[in-house]
Amino acid sequence: MKILSDENFTTFRWNRNTMLITALNVVIFCWVGAMIEVHAQHRNKERMSAGFEEDLYGRIEQKNPGLGNLPATFSVARTTSLKGHKQKQNGVNFDKVFVNEGGHLNPNTGIFTVPFDGVYQFSYSGAALPHKKLSLQLMKNHYEVQSLAFDGKRRKNPQVQNQQTVLQLDRGDRIWIRLAPNRSFGVIGFKRNGYSTTFTGHILRRVSRDDYAPTNLDGISLTPVQLDNDHSDVKSNRRKRSSRTKRLANPLQNANSNFVAFSVARTTSVFGSDSNRTFIPTSRDGILTYDRVFVNTYDVMNQQTGEFVTPRNGLYYFAYTVGKYPKKKLSVALMKNDNEFQVLAYDESITNQRHMQSQTIILQLERGDKIWLKSYNSKDYAVYSNMGKYITFNGYLLSAM
To answer: Has residue 254 got a pLDDT over 80?
Structure first.
């Protein structure tokens, strides 16, 4: 057996360490090279995906001018109940997501952040917990109430209440649902194989500067779209706007414009003409008028007369919600032209509590047709509203013909 001298052993140990270091460097070099290759492939996939999405949205925009990037759609629900006095945040959050294209709705906070300027439709619903009341408010930005879903009757078997609203919004605006923070209020989550508390929204029309006209066209009076002034709570660095009112160009002057929409509300109650309270107009037997305008493109809705005048032939969608006055009956019909009944929201019960009724319909209309809401004109009937906007009326063009 040959024994290594101290000098030879030192040389052998140095050579072994050198080989180990060299091998380790080779391994590190190969790993870094592999990571660089993976990163490059990932970046290429991102570029390809972005290019595909840009091309896809470009083709969608060509077929649907004005809609812009379609991923501004969400539909969510709650699976658990929520009590008003036990909320941990201002808005109602959601743990069931059906659709959230674009990711603009944060389910944890329940806040939808508007991705770009446009006109949006929102729908929300809820049912009170047994023996509790319901009060859901659609909020904009900080505490700007847009509409309300309410049920003041403490029912053993609650009924679902729903509300729809169309709003013109700016990029960065925040829309969310607020449950009244009081122990008297609460909402049900998942019950009997279905969801009661839901929140849905989507864009109807993406608005650009080309949609606005600084002056009236051909002597046609244009109603400005009214926007809320309080945006002091919005923390995003949104661009400053020189004016809070905008005028939309006349659609009849633009063959490519197929967008017509209105959304109005009333903040005061109305009563039958033989009631001892404030009279509703009698010229059309109880036509409802409005004191709040969210959207009114091209002045299609006359809020003073309560009439929507069809600007062009097509299929139109309408939705309305009305509040029931305590100890009064409720009967509000959607009418066409001269007293042609279309649909009815009705409640004949006599209770001390307020709640709501809703209706929707799609109609094929011709240019010049008039659509309006009629309340039955009797002292036994009334429609309730307050600053929460129990009375709302929305409509828009689905397809021009």
So the answer is: no
